[in-house]
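ok, trying the design again with the full structure, not the truncated one.
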């Protein structure tokens, strides 16, 4: 399968069955136990990212690109804290849902821009580029190109999360819960941390902070990397 096919499958999935599933997981309504576990894991990933960003006390001065923003789980609180946020996703349904949630949660959405866009077509420069739980849709041989593109948009910092390959055996057993039933049409790709760190290094970035978020069915390695000069 070539990269274009992979992408079309992901896009179609997040505009159909994937949209219904992930909108519920990333919401607060009733879900099954597995989905609840994934929701809690993902919430920890978002909370850790927010804590790193707020630690320095300058969120309101930051321009942030949230690449593959989903339903806005990270973009909305960042905009609420005053950051200038550019949020985009390849799925128009996810972006429409994110817009709705932003309108409901924020009194003012002037500093939050949404777009339906493939992250590899993004342009511009942002202080911080963030891409949470998207690399799972990228095969290993496509990760370098994707990360290099995100790095080219980042003036100072890149925050990425991915399902680590070190947990491969236990994870593979559970991977069915990432994309159950008909939605198994989308593959989940794991990445070796050493590969990701090496790609970041080649792009001129060094890892500063890291965390591993792990629940029963959710695994996410979270890395913050900054440009060597900053
Ligand atoms: N980052 C969000 C979060 O953590 O709440 C959403 C994570 S969700 C598992 C993955 C998202 O990545 C989906 O909304 C999907 O449409 C998006 N996505 C996948 N491939 C993409 C691409 N090439 N460009 C932009 N978005 C993409």
């Amino acid at each position: 399968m070539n990269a274009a096919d992979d992408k079309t499958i992901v896009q179609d999935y997040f505009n159909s069955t994937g949209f219904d599933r992930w909108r519920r997981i990333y919401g607060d309504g009733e879900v099954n136990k597995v989905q609840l576990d994934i929701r809690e894991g993902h919430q920890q990933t978002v909370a850790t990212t927010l804590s790193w960003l707020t630690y320095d006390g300058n969120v309101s001065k930051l321009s942030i690109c949230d690449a593959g923003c989903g339903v806005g789980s990270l973009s909305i609180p960042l905009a609420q804290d005053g950051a200038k946020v550019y949020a985009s996703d390849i799925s128009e349904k996810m972006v429409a849902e994110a817009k709705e949630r932003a309108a409901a949660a924020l009194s003012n959405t002037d500093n939050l821009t949404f777009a339906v866009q493939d992250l590899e077509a993004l342009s511009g420069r942002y202080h911080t580029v963030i891409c949470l739980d998207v690399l799972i849709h990228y095969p290993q041989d496509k990760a370098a190109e994707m990360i290099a593109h995100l790095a080219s948009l980042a003036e100072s910092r890149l925050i990425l999360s991915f399902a680590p390959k070190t947990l491969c055996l236990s994870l593979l057993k559970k991977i069915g819960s990432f994309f159950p039933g008909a939605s198994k049409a989308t593959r989940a790709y794991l990445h070796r941390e050493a590969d990701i760190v090496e790609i970041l290094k080649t792009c001129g970035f060094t890892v500063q902070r890291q965390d591993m978020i792990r629940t029963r069915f959710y695994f996410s390695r979270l890395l913050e990397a900054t440009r060597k000069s900053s």
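Keeping the full-length input from now on. The longest helix spans residues 33-55.
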